[in-house]
Automatic annotation (TrEMBL):
It comes from the Bacteria. This is Uncharacterized protein. The lineage of its organism: Bacteria, Pseudomonadati, Bacteroidota, Flavobacteriia, Flavobacteriales.
Length: 116
């Protein structure tokens, strides 16, 4: 996506007491749901408009992957994902939709990627 959506606040701005770092960030809103759809055909299994949540893998900072049972059950501030299937076409773009508590629904398209 070409922009990030941040929902956080300084602890010093919140009515909390006994904190060790008053400038620490905490998330004030949670992502209640997230869905990722293909804009263009990805492969034979995922034509344009398909939800691809089920083929996503969690990608950790060491490059290791692990399955994600349910993307909507994950609690995260930042998340890196990898596809478990290989695209059959050279044009990739995705629509990311979801809901953030107390903020409402969001929808963003990733940048268009054309593979060589």
């Amino acid at each position: 996506m070409d922009k990030r959506i941040y929902f956080s606040a300084f602890l010093s701005d919140l009515p909390t007491y006994g904190r060790s770092d008053p400038n620490e960030y905490v998330q004030t809103n949670q992502i209640d749901s997230v869905n990722i759809f293909t804009v263009y055909d990805f492969n034979e299994n995922y034509p344009a408009g398909s939800n691809v949540n089920e083929m996503l893998l969690f990608l950790d900072h060491m490059g290791e992957t692990s399955p994600i049972e349910d993307l909507n059950e994950q609690k995260f501030i930042s998340l890196s994902l990898k596809f478990s299937e290989i695209p059959s076409y050279d044009t990739l773009q995705f629509r990311v939709t979801g809901r953030i508590s107390d903020e409402g629904i969001f929808e963003e398209n990733t940048k268009l990627v054309i593979l060589d």
